[in-house]
Write a structure and sequence with these properties.
Helices cover about 80% and strands about 0% of the residues. The two termini are about 25 Å apart. The protein is mainly α. The protein is globular, with a radius of gyration of 21 Å. It contains twelve helices and no strands.
Length: about 300
Amino acid sequence: MYQPLSILFLHAYKAQPKPKLHHDPCCAVVVCNLSLFGMASNLPDNLTREQCVYLAKLAEQAERYEEMVKFMEKLVIGWTSTSELTVEERNLLSVAYKNVIGSLRAAWRIVSSIEQKEESRKNEEHVALVKDYRSTVETELSEVCAGILKLLDSHLIPSAYTSESKVFYMKMKGDYHRYLAEFKVGNEKKNAAEETMLAYKSAQDVALADLAPTHPIRLGLALNFSVFYYEILNSSDKACSMAKMSYQKDTLGILGSAVEVLSQTAFEEAIAELDTLGEESYKDSTLIMQLLRDNLTLWTSDAQDQLDEP
């Protein structure tokens, strides 16, 4: 099954080398002592902000992302009451959670696909086992999303004072509600979708007012917001039934919001201002714009294919 390209894909696609660690004797002592505390499960109370950053980078290089999350959680809870995160700290937090949630989302898709195959084979014993296993993955997904959403509501969003930070965190809030909407059902899915919409809209309002069309965070918001429209809203039973009953009218209305308004507008506005970017921002922005274009091409092609069906 095709998965629309979102900003989560960007981190894997860029494949940039991990940041170099600057060896600090005091940090080395903390690393040694952590073995006595069960690594990140029980962190020492006396870790400094700089040590939390160092350990998060260390965990990233070791690809121990659950521990990276713990180090960044400690930093957020300990220091955002007095100042917002730096760009480096903000990005470390994002990378930590995206890697943890990314592996869980991939696991959920695989297990769900196997469940469908077992159902088609009418293997009830296997179906029951797979359902239980899927439930375990969903519990872990819910816990991870609840963790970052609590940090966002209690610490990160209240401490954000720049427009860039506000958009970043509200977009992040929308992303993790969207991840919940991917597997929740009934009212829980409806509530998650509504929370996603509210967060993305709040981020969009600030982005349109204060961030340039070429800003990577504004483009990333447009990318993920469009994926939400296409993948979550258009996958609901009501949206699908409306599309089937009167596809040309209803689907163009639904996809129009996702594709034409968000993707196309974001793409065209950014094209006009690319020359104003520095090298790193240029790379980020052009990559996100390509993802927007790829989704746009596929979605409009899918819509046309369905319109052409007898």
